[in-house]
Design a protein that fits this description.
The protein has one domain: Aminopeptidase, CATH 3.40.630. The protein contains six helices and nine strands; from the N terminus they run E-H-H-H-E-E-E-H-E-E-H-E-H-E-E. The strands form two sheets. A five-stranded mixed beta sheet has the order 4-5-7-9-8. Strands 1-2-3-6 form a four-stranded antiparallel beta sheet. A hairpin with a 2-residue loop joins strand 2 and strand 3. The two termini are 17 Å apart. GO terms for molecular function: acyltransferase activity, transferring groups other than amino-acyl groups.
């Protein structure tokens, strides 16, 4: 799917045959070696070799429910995890008061954008692709962005920014803290 506002930007499902694109993207983004394992393992991802995290993500791509890749001029520039919330065990433990009783919710909990592609609509395109998919399938999407307007908001924005989700039709349904809303999009 090509984002209509930026024809050079397109988003595709992350599949096993796109693995080399992720291997190119993650180091180019200045990431910390998590290979998008935080919401599965919590801080444990820090305690194991980065290669184990990398191998885990590669295996997850094979399952078909790992995420989305954004391309700018055919170069990989963005990643978003898009997984059933039930496949992210650390999420419920990290946010103990999060109501996880609703089945079949899909989570969009983190993003990686190449440092040379920031402020070019990559995160917006990834969110937009996920919402289009949710409309087509009737899925409920959930995310946990940072509300950067909240006093003392963390500067760690790997979960996205509230305004970007609101522009795509997500609504705040709860707050885990002053700077951490829970947003949902119902397709």
């Amino acid at each position: 799917m090509t984002d209509s506002t930026t024809p050079r930007l397109r988003v595709e499902p992350a599949t096993g045959d796109r693995w080399t694109d992720l291997e190119e993207l993650f180091p180019a983004s200045g990431f910390n070696g998590c290979w998008c394992q935080y919401w599965l393992l919590g801080a444990q991802y820090h305690r194991r070799p980065h290669a184990e995290n990398r191998d885990a993500l590669r295996e997850q791509l094979g399952s078909g429910s790992a995420g989305l890749l954004a391309y700018l001029d055919n170069r990989p520039v963005g990643w978003a995890r898009l997984s059933p919330r039930s496949e992210l065990p650390w999420l419920a433990r990290r946010f103990g008061r999060l109501d996880v009783s609703e089945p079949d919710v899909w989570s969009l909990p983190c993003f990686v954008v190449a440092s040379n592609a920031r402020r070019q609509g990559v995160m917006t395109a990834l969110i937009g692709h996920a919402t289009a998919w949710a409309r087509a399938t009737g899925a409920v999407l959930e995310a946990y962005p940072i509300d950067d307007a909240a006093p003392g908001a963390t500067r760690n924005r790997f979960t996205g920014v509230l305004k970007a989700f609101e522009r795509q039709g997500f609504s705040v349904v709860d707050r885990l803290s002053d700077d951490r809303p829970v947003v949902q999009y119902r397709g």
